[in-house]
Design the sequence.
């Protein structure tokens, strides 16, 4: 299935370079420590719904399962791991 490109106002950064996730033939992630992605726009890592961030973090577990986080603290940790600004999110 093909999707439209991501909105240009959203910036995505990953702890992996190049920006990818690799799975082994058994379905496990090749390197789960490198499989962290942050999506952020001009709002930054600020609460947008209660205590949930307007940014998103995608974490790939060693089992290959992807999970999404909206936790302010987890997003900030991911941005720190990446080591650079992501859209409006600052390290």
Sequence:
């Amino acid at each position: 299935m093909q999707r439209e490109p991501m909105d240009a106002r959203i910036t995505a950064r990953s702890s992996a370079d190049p920006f990818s996730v690799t799975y082994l033939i058994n379905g496990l992630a090749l390197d789960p420590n490198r499989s962290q992605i942050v999506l952020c726009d001009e709002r930054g890592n600020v609460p947008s719904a209660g205590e949930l961030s307007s940014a998103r973090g995608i974490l790939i577990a060693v089992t290959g399962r992807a999970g999404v986080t909206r936790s302010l603290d987890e997003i900030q940790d991911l941005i720190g791991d990446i080591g650079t600004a992501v859209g409006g999110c600052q390290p």
Observations:
- The chain has one domain: 11-82.
- The mean pLDDT is 86.
